[in-house]
Amino acid sequence: MSFSPFAKVYLAGHRGLVGSALLRKLQEAGYSNLLVRTSRELDLRRQADVEAFFHQEKPEYVLLAAAKVGGIMANMETPAAFFYDNILIQSNVMHAAYKFRVNKLLYVSSSCAYPRQCIQPMKEEYLLDGKPEPTNEAYALAKICGMKMAEAYHQQHGCAFFSLIFPNIYGAGDNFDLSSSHVISALIKKMYEAKTNGLPAVEIWGTGNARREFIYVDDVADACLYFMNRLNGGEALNVGTGIDISIKGLAELIKTVVGYDGNLFYNTDKPDGMPQKLLEVSKMRESGWSPRVSLEDGLQKTFHWFINNCAKAVKGR
Ligand SMILES: NC(=O)c1ccc[n+]([C@@H]2O[C@H](COP(=O)([O-])OP(=O)(O)OC[C@H]3O[C@@H](n4cnc5c(N)ncnc54)[C@H](OP(=O)(O)O)[C@@H]3O)[C@@H](O)[C@H]2O)c1
User: Fold this and answer.
1) Separation of CA 199 and ligand 1 centre (Å)
2) 19 alpha carbon – ligand 1 mean position (Å)
3) Where in the sequence numbering do the catalytic residues fall?
4) 137-157 and 79-99 helices cross at what angle (nearest 10)?
5) Up-side HSE of residue 86: CA atoms within 13 Å toward CB?
6) Which contacts qualify for 251-258: CB closer than 8 Å, 24 or more apart?
7) What does the pLDDT look like over 249-293, one tens digit per residue?
8) Positive/negative CA dihedral, 121, 127, 132, 137
């Protein structure tokens, strides 16, 4: 059976940023035979439990969006967890998908897997050309292993496992917990808190000169469905906007969206991470897909979602 609305699809990580957008997208597209489990119901680090689940449920397609994910602080403080969780989750799910003859599996990967000194923009073939960025080395190595594992299962067993490599993802459903959040959600929350409490300045980690590429989460979900119907295994394809912006430029945009009129203080004692991360997306464009949401529109949507879902948790003085 093809990847149609009648197929039995296991969406791993359905409560996360990417997974929740995928769930909305699949439901809108009429997919009604969806399998989902929270990490409490099924801990994907437990191989026996994962295999029992696949044996019982026999999914036909797998979207693997479950992972341990976090910003620069979480990556630096808990590298062992980034290794252990990600290696086990992806190994257990891919091996079970092979064992129980899943038709196709999508592994959601990240531009963090590219080398720190990578030539920009980053082409798919540069993946193993150098050492990863030290602040997220464990995560980067795990993501490389996930993509290489998908390729190896395709090569040895003919499995239709493939990877999509996304830049920084943001949007509705994002994590606004400052201990583990990424740059956009962190800046929205910090600036909103500062505005609510009349604080004169907001601290931003690093020099502000690092350049990053951002993709809105609904575009990510759209790309996942599009490529599930087009890629057949072994590939690792960049999927991005092809546009980057400095952290300073981003912070100014967020200031406007949030309506904060204080100062931005760049703490240069904190790391920048990779100097630049921009995906080269000509293969993606040739295959007929492009993102639709601009950074300005995406930031507005994300701020609205934050106001409706998280702003109540922000304490005023
Ligand atoms: N966020 C980004 O900027 C970004 C950029 C590029 C690529 N990616 C990739 O996109 C994928 C999803 O990331 P995300 O940002 O959506 O992450 P997220 O919001 O943190 O969500 C992660 C999901 O993984 C599930 N999970 C974590 N540990 C698990 C375990 N042991 N067993 C079962 N489920 C577990 C969680 O389930 P529960 O909620 O049930 O606990 C959660 O739903 C990852 O592969 C990541 O590498 C993310």
Assistant:
1) 33
2) 7
3) 139
4) 10
5) 30
6) 251/187, 251/204, 251/208, 253/295, 253/296, 253/299, 254/184, 254/187, 254/188, 254/191, 254/299, 255/191, 257/188, 257/299, 257/300, 257/303, 258/188, 258/191, 258/192, 258/195, 258/303
7) 999 999 999 999 999 999 999 988 889 999 999 999 999 999 999
8) positive
Q: In a mutational test of the pocket of ligand 1, which residue from 18, 47, 90, 239 has the highest number of ligand atoms less than 8 Å from its CB?
A: 18
Question: Cα dist. 185→46, 218, 225, 279, 308 in Å?
Answer: 31, 16, 25, 21, 14
Tens of pLDDT, residue by residue over 179-199, are 888 999 999 999 999 999 999
- Please check the confidence at residue 216 and state whether its pLDDT lies above 70: yes
Domains of the chain: 9-169+213-238 (3.40.50.720), 171-211+244-276+294-310 (3.90.25.10)
215, 172 contact by CB (below 8 A) = no
Q: Which pLDDT tens digit goes with each residue over 62-73? A: 999 999 999 888
pLDDT band at 314, cuts 50/70/90? low
Residues 206, 266 contacting (CB under 8 angstroms)? yes
Residue written as token pair 């934050």:
306
By the 10 Å C-beta count (0-12 exposed, 13-18 middle, 19+ buried), 249 is classed as middle
Query: Rounded to the nearest whole angstrom, what is the distance from the C-alpha of residue 117 to the centroid of ligand 1?
Result: 26
Helix-then-strand count for the chain, H and E: 10, 12
Q: In 232-310, which residue ranges form alpha helices assigned H by DSSP? A: 247-258, 282-286, 295-309
Please state whether beta strands 201-205 and 263-267 pair in parallel, antiparallel, or not at all (unpaired). Answer: parallel
